[in-house]
Fold this protein.
Amino acid sequence: MSVTRPEQHPRVPDGYDRLWTPHRMAYIDGENKPVDDGAGPGCPFCRAPGEPDEQALIVHRGQSCYVVLNLYPYNPGHLLICPYRHVPDLTEMTAVERAEMTELAATAMVTLRRIKDCDGFNLGMNAGPVAGAGVAAHVHQHVVPRWAGDANFLPIVGQTKALPELLGDTREQLAAGWGDGPR
């Protein structure tokens, strides 16, 4: 992350500081999105369980679902809960998968409250491309920690989110403290 001041680049006449986030172009350009609806190497949620946890950013592995950090988080600690099976939405999941997804979401909330001291959460899923699903062929639930005052002008005006922590550091903290402590 770098901030460029107008005096460093005199062609910028408005006097605003610029927060450069070129890493976001990977998301905008569709990097890591599956090329088709098929399971396997084209699907990042099918591929992740076959990789080491640290490399795949997996925080916890359950019986039918796993918890992974979002590569393009809205906030530090933004988790995704995915079934191992390649299914497009809740209607295709088994009752066991749906139950475990719900339990993992609850455990994620407990863990994030304790480790990240968050004030609230956004939980949800986008079913289908028209609903905003980036990986529409493999259902996943978002657990996004929220803090009072965590939204500012950057996401609204600049379509940019400043994240103060590296994904690997967040994964290490959450994996080490997964599910410990009272509910």
